[in-house]
Design brief:
6-stranded parallel β-sheet, 44% helix, 8 helices
Length: 180
């Protein structure tokens, strides 16, 4: 199934000050999540960021906040963002069934959020080059497990070009320049 901008929303999970430094390829996650955030904002997609226990793990990193613009950032204690009532309400209120997920950690909060969203009947897309964990095997197993239950594993470029739909889109040049 293809992503379609009118049906999609972006969820960026827990890219926080004390978590990011210990993540595998953290700069790649920040770069690609930033691209997704800028693309989603240009195309008018709803965007939501989460922070796991921000008092202990710190705020979302400044680079992500800069790309997020005025997107809402909600704290959470549940590992599954979709199990948090305030976050669940925001996802439902957007009324867009395609949930694109980026963030950390792939095998904990990203995995549990995606699984919960699948259980809730959403179409879930996890952006493989915009998620991470401390260890490569944790990332690989999480992506395998997600794919096995029907989560679509995509890349940042896939998202951008599927959201655009065609090269005649008014934002094509702007968004394609983000990946060069």
């Amino acid at each position: 199934m293809l992503l379609a901008a009118p049906h999609a929303q972006l969820l960026v999970i827990d890219i926080q000050a004390r978590l990011l430094p210990v993540m595998r390829d953290g700069p790649r996650v920040v770069r690609n999540s930033g691209i997704l955030l800028r693309g989603a904002r240009k195309l008018g997609l709803p965007v939501l960021l989460t922070e796991q226990y921000p008092q202990g793990l710190g705020p979302t990193v400044p680079e992500i906040m800069a790309d997020a613009g005025d997107a809402l950032v909600l704290p959470k204690m549940h590992f599954s963002a979709a199990s948090d009532p305030a976050i669940h309400t925001r996802i439902e209120a957007a009324a867009r069934p395609q949930i694109v997920i980026a963030g950390i950690e792939a095998h904990v909060c990203v995995l549990q959020t995606a699984l919960t969203l699948v259980e809730q009947g959403q179409q879930v897309f996890v952006v493989a080059d915009a998620v991470s964990s401390r260890h490569a095997d944790s990332i690989a197993v999480a992506l395998q497990r997600l794919q096995a239950v029907g989560v679509q594993i995509v890349t940042t470029e896939m998202c951008l070009f599927e959201w655009l739909g065609n090269a005649a889109h008014a934002e094509f040049k702007n968004l394609s320049s983000l990946i060069k």
